[in-house]
Amino acid sequence: MTGQMLVIAEKPSVAKTVAKALGAYQNRDGYMEGSGCIVSWCFGHLAEYAPPEDYDERYRKWDFMDLPIIPTEWEMAVAEDKKKQFSVLKRLLHRDDVETAVNACDAGREGELIFWNVYELAGAAVPVKRLWISSMEESAVMDGFRNLKDASCYKGMREAAVCRARADWLVGINATRGFSTKYGKKLLVGRVQSPTLAMAVERQRMIDGFAREAYFTVALKGGGITAVSGSMGTEEEADALAAACRNSPAVVTKVEKKEKRESPPKLYDLTGLQRDANRLFGYTAQQTLDALQELYEKKLVTYPRTDSRYITGDMEKSTAELLDGIAGRFFFAAEADGKDVRRLICDSKVSDHHAILPTSESMAADMERLPERHRNIYLLVAARLASAAAGERISDITRVEVSCAGHIFTAKGAAVLHEGFAAVDAAFMAGCVNPQKTESADTDIPAAGVLGGLSEGTALPAHTAEKAKHFTSPPKPYTEDTLLAAMEKAGRSETEDGVERKGIGTPATRAGTIEKLVSAGYLERKGRKILPTAEGTALAGLLPDKMKSPSLTAAWENRLLAIEKGTADADRFMEDIISGVDEIISGLSRVTGEEAALFSRQAALGKCPNCGKDVLHGRYGAYCQGRCGMSFKVFGKAVPDQTVEALLKGEPVRMRGKDRKTGKPCRSTLMPNGVEPYSAEKNGRTVSGYRFAFRPQKGQP
User: Fold this and answer.
1) pLDDT range class, residue 643, cuts 50, 70, 90
2) Of 303, 310, 378, 690, catalytic
3) What is the largest CA-CA distance in the chain?
4) What is the CATH number assigned to the segment(s) 164-207+477-594?
5) Which of 482, 515, 489, 506 is nearest to 556 (CA)?
6) Where in the chain is the domain with CATH 3.40.50.140?
7) Is 303 a residue of the active site?
8) In CATH, what is the architecture of 214-263+394-471?
9) Band of pLDDT at residue 697, cut at 50, 70 and 90
């Protein structure tokens, strides 16, 4: 009997596409089979590094004295809701008829990690091949299977993925527990979140501390132009100049003309697409990534989590055909004045995946059946391809100098000679974007042609001179667009050329980082602005400079790339990470009680009846500063702070819930009656702690 090929994809939707391409049409429980192939899936990160309490039960309670937590042997864990699928994969990996396993998870570091975590936890030994594709189209899938590579070709990438995951675990677990236990409040601290938060806090500090200053200009108007003076610091100076100009001739002393050529934009990588989707449509980075992922799984766009803005040389013909298809389908692409595909090619700048493109299959798709957000994201991708391959925008820029009362005034104008790619962009904006929801770009260049016909020596007839008052402007608050740009550029001066990712985080994780900071209450959205909260500002003030600086990420990525290329040692990298964790905990050990109290000045709700420490307000309900395991839930649900305060004072509370003995709904007035231990099953584990003991108030049922 010929051996079977077991293909393991990252998600069920991807597995279905692969199974269809391979002819595996027989549906089984957790996999598909047929034509000598078995196709199954992982549900994303199916097996992950275990939490600290899986190593030792004492870690269930957060205690600074237990830090740092450094596993000697790393353990994996599978979430309760994913255990069934893991059992399927484990059984398949050990089937006697499986001859080869194929890692068909997403082509990148994370895909390597997802597959190998499952493979190793399952104790598998079957040989492994690697599928590496950038499109879910059937032709791309089949071409990928015809060119499978041995898994050893990606050994360096796998080691780099493991190092990054373990390093993030070590820093995240120890820093979060360290700061939380030292400052008496659960605090989210991490290599990527912390510098992102610090940037938002620093921007707000600059805005809050900005001192607006007035400055003045004088504008000469006459002969169809407006020429403006340089800035002046006092109103008296501007008044004097305006008065002098009203009684003096104004003469053109210089006319400069220059041709300006603007190159088309590059193709989209993920961050660039997220930025434009936020700027034009108001979508968050996560919303854009989610929509793009669904479009990828529907075979309408290529792989989304890319940091490249180019295609490879072997894609020239297929991309030219794509451009023909786009021009025939979409009105904005019809405005393109050409299709210079060679401009889009740069093999050296395509690492794991090329830029985001529409697929050939999407040319036959019904766009009207897509949800609005998905349709807008797809159209952005299509418009960018048409724009990137179009011609240059060519303008005539005219700069005029006018002399009056011994001062020089300048005017600028532009006449567009050839729209080029700008015609595509303008058509897309007019037909696909609501201009009321989009900020227009600032420009100091008047409309075309306003300076035509002027020459040196021309006098401005009947000119006027008017003073204008202006104010300096503070930095603008971050939007999702500008915060993503800042994350992408951060630390670039410290990152070596060729590094897989530059900046803070990766294209795939930046959206999740922003969402984590928002959900933790450190950042908040107000309209399109992203602002730090008081809690986020306080946390950023506690963090050491090293944790707030993007240089930490830059240093990691430099070394991870070297590990991937086989020129650096993974064990040495992990040794240095552990040293860094020791440094963080050592620094926290020097925090005094007075310093720890500075973080949260909120009044305590009362004293914990179990350990006597303060009970404080938390984002998800009251908690004990001593982390003693005391729960302040009633009937298993978090209650308002006022209720907790009453319970801590021994006052009766009126509650609605379920009777603990009968399970029936009840409404009773309860009196706290000390503390009782409890235990409960949660996600397959026994959780224990303490809670209020109650007795019905006298006279109540």
Assistant:
1) confident
2) 303
3) 103
4) 1.10.460.10
5) 506
6) 4-147
7) yes
8) Distorted Sandwich (2.70)
9) low
